[in-house]
Design a protein that fits this description.
Number of domains: 2
Strand order of the largest sheet: 14-13-12-11-7-10-9-8-15
GO molecular function, one term: nucleotide binding
Largest sheet: 9 strands, mixed
Order of helices and strands: EHEHEHEHEHEHEHHEEEEEEEHHE
Distance between the termini: 35 Å
Protein name: Putative dehydrogenase
CATH class of the largest domain: Alpha Beta
Radius of gyration: 21 Å
Oligomer: single chain
CATH superfamily of the largest domain: Dihydrodipicolinate Reductase, domain 2
CATH architecture of the largest domain: 2-Layer Sandwich
Length: 343
């Protein structure tokens, strides 16, 4: 049984607490928030009568002797939470993004390494069934090695609040999900990026609601991203829509349930090689899925077995670096080396 203190009881904490109560290995020992009444409200909502409540994480960690911290605070506060967690010998699972800057991300990753604690990020799109299926299918070589990866993300949510006022809203708030999924599906190492942002006339955001980026993913592979937070009509799923081109064929995913692939056949018809369908196998029983619940289960297993979770901070920092490099490229109008953003 892992005794956990959750810090940050805003709206996102509901998703975490819902997943945690489905995890028999987790006991929420404490809830921390700057607003103690909000923490008490979450305790009532999720039947956590025995949980310690407070506004000071240091005090609650002393009181509960917790094994781990669930960090659901704003990104700017992640460093302070991480340092307190590691000072109390706690493992740490944090909401995305890992940090609010490349330097702060590296500082947290380094602190986890020095403390010898498990540190992971809730990069929950990796735990989508079709993302797992696609990675396994591509690894099989059925369409040859991937050469080009293309993702579109067009959704038009009216959030209200801070998102509509923040800068680089699409890249900072959402794009990391797509970037991380691309990196995972083709086992890519991000190298560089050229990115543009703009604000369409129909936008209700302050800045950065639309973006286009082209990444190098190593081994002569390119990943293109086109996205918008204000594109009404024909919206994609929250997972985006995908086309992955391989040496001998292509795969497409609509971001929902439809995943299809075609492979080149030996015959040619006029100028064009004939192609035929190839089956994308169903989910393998060993594939880990479940969104937040899947990430939490992976985290618990890592703590119990002394292994590293898939979304460990030392790996996730590469996806975060893609975000910061894209922002730098958009601001400067230049292609940016991504390794420079990893700290």
């Amino acid at each position: 049984m892992l005794h956990v203190v959750l810090v940050g009881c805003g709206a996102m904490s509901k998703t975490w607490l819902e997943a945690a109560r489905q995890s028999p290995e987790i006991r929420i020992a404490g809830l921390v928030d700057l607003d103690a009444d909000r923490a008490r409200q979450r305790a009532r909502e999720y039947d956590l009568a025995g949980a310690a409540i407070g506004t000071d994480l240091d005090v609650i960690l002393d009181q509960t002797k917790a094994d781990a911290v669930f960090d659901v605070v704003v990104p700017a506060a992640r460093g302070e939470v991480a340092n307190l967690a590691f000072a109390h010998h706690c493992h740490l699972l944090t909401e995305k993004p890992l940090a609010d800057s490349p330097a702060n991300a590296r500082a947290i990753v380094d602190a986890a390494r020095r403390a010898g604690r498990v540190h992971a990020v809730v990069q929950n799109r990796r735990y989508v069934a079709n993302v797992r299926r696609i990675r396994r299918f591509l690894d099989s070589g059925a369409i040859g090695a991937p050469t080009s990866i293309h993702a579109d993300f067009f959704v038009a949510p009216h959030f209200g609040g801070f998102r509509e006022e923040m800068r680089h809203v699409l890249l900072l708030d959402m794009a990391i999900h797509t970037f991380d999924a691309a990196r995972y599906m083709v086992n890519g190492e991000p190298a560089d990026v050229y990115c543009q942002e703009w604000e369409p006339a129909n936008s209700w955001y302050r800045q950065g609601s639309s973006a286009s980026a082209t990444f190098g993913l190593g081994r002569n592979r390119m990943f293109t991203y086109r996205g918008s937070w204000c594109a009404d009509g024909f919206r994609t799923s929250w997972e985006g829509s995908w086309r992955i081109v391989g040496e001998r064929g292509s795969l497409i995913w609509d971001g929902h349930d439809e995943v299809k692939a075609e492979v080149v056949l030996p015959e040619r018809e006029g100028l064009i090689d004939k192609v035929g369908p190839v089956t994308v196998p169903p989910l393998d029983p060993s594939d880990r899925i479940g969104g937040h619940l899947g990430v939490i289960a992976d985290f618990v297993q890592a703590v119990e077995t002394g292994t590293e979770p898939e979304t460990r901070g030392s790996d996730n920092i590469k996806s975060l670096a893609m975000v910061f490099a894209a922002i730098q490229s958009a601001e400067t109008g230049r292609r940016v080396n991504i390794a420079s953003q990893e700290g």
